[in-house]
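Following up on my earlier message about S-adenosylmethionine. Here are the inputs again, as you asked, copied directly from the submission form:
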Amino acid sequence: MTTTVPGWREYARKLAEKIAADGVLTDPAWRNALEHVPRHVFVPRFYEQRPAAGWVETSDDDTGRLEAVYSDAPLVTALDKTGDGNHVTVSSSTKPGLMVRMLEALDVRAGHRVLEIGTGTGYNAGLLAHRLGDGLVYSVDIGAELVRTARERLASLGRTPTLAAVHGAEGLPDAAPFDRIIVTCSVPSVPWAWAEQVREGGLVLVDVKRGVHAGNLVLLRRLEDRLEGRFLPKWAGFMAMRDTDDAPPTPRAGTPELERGTRSTTRLDPYPWTATVPWFLAQTRLPRRVTFGYRGAGPAWATFAGDDGSWCAVEISPGDGGARKVRQGGPIALWDRFEAVHQQWEELGRPGWDRFGLTVRQDGHRVWLDDPNGPHRWSLPPMR
Ligand SMILES: C[S@@+](CC[C@H](N)C(=O)[O-])C[C@H]1O[C@@H](n2cnc3c(N)ncnc32)[C@H](O)[C@@H]1O
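Thanks, got it. Here's what our run produced:
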């Protein structure tokens, strides 16, 4: 598809207007980029999951496509199959409103040299190149085909930022130092290579996340011996960084054996997305990889399983009096640990993401409340 598709400019203008009306887009330079960089060139097809039909492809010829491409929504652009035959998303075009929120939070200015980790479709690299010029924009992705296609799309618009197919955890040392690093996949820990490649005073914006919903975007400033900064006030989520160009392996986790587990009850809701802060804090006390799932008809149970064989299941609908049944098994009582952290968070007055920060040193990560040197700090166990 080319930029000559009739009407795209009006769609792009309306998208910018919508994101501005939401209070997210305030910088005229990003508005200009949104209005001039054609998202449809970067998203010639995308996939939607439909209840009966599974993944369905929408491509250039479909009516209503421009409307979808210029909606403020994420669009899945690449699928792969895991060893067990399931389709998983390996790339997508981020929701434009979120991209703008990140670009504004990152305080990108004319003259900045920027590295993006997670090229995907190339659209964000296109926005950056429109604003900063090709020579100051670098973008990497682990997907060699994604990078090749993104480079072609950018070139079709006369744009030539530097793109490379590498593991983003390594950054791009030969092009460092950067003023800004923007990461559009989530990581369980911040690789030290990024601290080494951003100049002192420079910023890294990354989604630090362990397990579903347990983490958020954090804006880190490079100080002499560390990266340090606060989480963004509003929660957002990115797909996890993968280690190879293939579909990420299905996590191996203990299987909940409901009949054999210890029994208790809880008053807490089992959904991790209703309590993203305590679930993140709980990562300091849980096995390294905890996955979320469902069991039973309805479904009846929400399940959590750690890679150490620990598991728990929590009833989705509460019984009379508001209590939900809990079953737990394996080496660690996952739900008890989560409840203990949740209790601590309640005693602290249920602080939101805006009050938490992260300090990254070469030898470890520390989460803190309000002040890096204050009384409330948690060590985040290493992951990589
Ligand atoms: C949400 S998409 C990025 C969207 C992109 N910024 C855009 O504008 O289209 C996340 C991307 O992270 C990439 N990714 C995953 N693991 C990676 C890694 N280890 N290194 C670099 N990129 C990685 C995926 O291949 C995927 O394209």
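One observation from looking it over: Residues 90-94, 117-118, 120-121, 123-124, 140-143, 146, 167-169, 184-185, 238-239, 241-242 surround S-adenosylmethionine (CB under 6 Å). Hope that helps, and feel free to reply on this thread.
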